[in-house]
From TrEMBL:
Keyword field: Cell membrane, Cilium biogenesis/degradation, Cytoplasm, Cytoskeleton, Membrane, Nucleus
Entry keyword annotation includes Membrane: yes
Biological process per Gene Ontology, one example term: cilium organization
InterPro entries: CATIP_N (IPR048777)
Family: Belongs to the CATIP family.
Localization (cell): Cell membrane; Cytoplasm, Cytoskeleton; Nucleus
Protein name: Ciliogenesis-associated TTC17-interacting protein
Pfam family, one: CATIP_N
Physiological role: Plays a role in primary ciliogenesis by modulating actin polymerization.
Organism: Dromaius novaehollandiae (Emu)
GO cellular component assignments: cytoskeleton; nucleus; plasma membrane
Residue intervals of the Ciliogenesis-associated TTC17-interacting protein N-terminal domain: 19-250
Length: 370
């Protein structure tokens, strides 16, 4: 039996209009500047050999076997060993140029020795609905499988995990944001909740051996039931992450080396190659080629006219009509004159285009002169 659409919590309903309005102001040119790869390494107490990476690229998304629509493919992943427990996360999301989630797969794995835990959250847009399915496995046994659906007509401004990584780059490049910025989203359990962004100011932070100016933002997820989670994110002016900290977690993700930052968003001008004059008449070889080609075309044209003697009569009729009518627009008159000869042209009056033009052979209102 199909489940009815889920009911939105009040907090989600309250932020929908503002979220949809803010996302509509993000243009494709801003997203175009967010297509790059970044990688952070894990540091802190209890962390060993971890890293986090994000890549965004152009893609096409559509049903299997059919041409897809242009979109962005967001891939992200992380792996680390925290207090001796290996953890890994992977994300793949197809996001439209309006930051709508077309399809997203989030996979989390915690390799506990006795009971390894694996969780998958799949989100896909089908028609006018958003379908969400969550699977939880412990060891080789599937412990839980939940499915829900949401009506897109009543759910606006949704910002899933993949689209959120894109929005983070846009906000960092802008360097500013509204004081209260909140969006509907899905928590780790696949339930509707809210995510908010808040600017914490500009700071100087070390990036490898150098120091850089970063914009610090707070990202907070507030589920309808459960404990809120918050992250402090430091971003360079080109949108790259320099520091990722989850509040209350001892592990910190850091950028190891300062990238080369572009000073402006303007595209570099394309080189101009001026046209060089070609003195072909002074070149004996080129002039000889020109004469040979000219004679070849003349012979071809003469042979075509000989094969089609009706051309003479056709051109004579056209010139006679043209000289008699003397239309102000000979090109339009020619188009109307030859229109009946076209197989795909709809039938009509031969001289309709020139009917309104004055003619010495006609009087007022198309009557013969008195």
């Amino acid at each position: 039996m199909e489940e009815p659409p889920c009911v939105c919590p009040p907090a989600v309903l309250a932020c929908m209009e503002g979220a949809a309005r803010f996302l509509s102001l993000i243009g494709p040119e801003e997203l175009e500047r967010c297509l790059f790869v970044e990688r952070l390494v894990a540091a802190g107490a209890g962390a060993a050999g971890g890293e986090f990476w994000v890549t965004v690229q152009r893609a096409a998304y559509g049903p299997t076997g059919q041409p897809g629509h242009s979109c962005l493919l967001v891939r992200a992943g992380s792996h680390s060993v925290v207090d001796g427990v290996p953890c890994a996360t992977s994300l793949q999301a197809y996001v439209s140029l309006q930051l709508e989630t077309l399809e997203q797969e989030l996979h989390e794995c915690v390799e506990l020795r006795a009971h390894p835990i694996e969780r998958r959250l799949h989100v896909v847009t089908r028609g006018e609905e958003l379908l969400v399915s969550k699977t939880l496995c412990e060891g080789q046994m599937e412990m839980l499988c939940e499915r829900s659906r949401h009506s897109l007509a009543t759910l606006r401004g949704l910002l899933a995990e993949g689209a959120g990584l894109l929005l983070l780059r846009v906000l960092a490049r802008r360097g500013t944001m509204p004081p209260r910025l909140a969006f509907p989203t899905l928590d780790a359990e696949g339930h509707l909740c809210t995510v908010s962004y808040r600017a914490l100011g500009i700071q100087q932070q070390p990036v490898g051996p150098e120091e850089a100016e970063v914009l610090v933002m707070e990202r907070a997820v507030r589920p309808s039931a459960g404990i809120p989670a918050a992250w402090h994110l430091s971003c360079l002016r080109d949108g790259r992450l320099a520091r990722w900290v989850q509040v209350g977690c001892p592990v910190v993700l850091l950028l190891q080396r300062m990238p080369v930052l572009t000073e402006t968003d303007e595209d570099e001008p394309q080189p101009v190659f001026p046209k060089q004059p070609l003195a072909w008449e002074a070149d004996a070889q080129l002039y000889s080629c020109f004469l040979d080609r000219k004679e070849e075309l003349q012979a071809s044209h003469a042979a075509f006219v000989r094969r089609h003697p009706e051309l003479g009569a056709l051109l004579a009729d056209f010139l006679q009509a043209l000289l008699l009518r003397q239309p102000p627009d000979p090109v339009a008159f020619a188009a109307a004159f030859f229109a009946p000869f076209a197989h795909r042209w709809p039938p009509g009056t031969r001289f309709a285009a020139a009917a309104a033009a004055p003619s010495p052979a006609r009087g007022p209102r198309g009557m013969p002169p008195s």
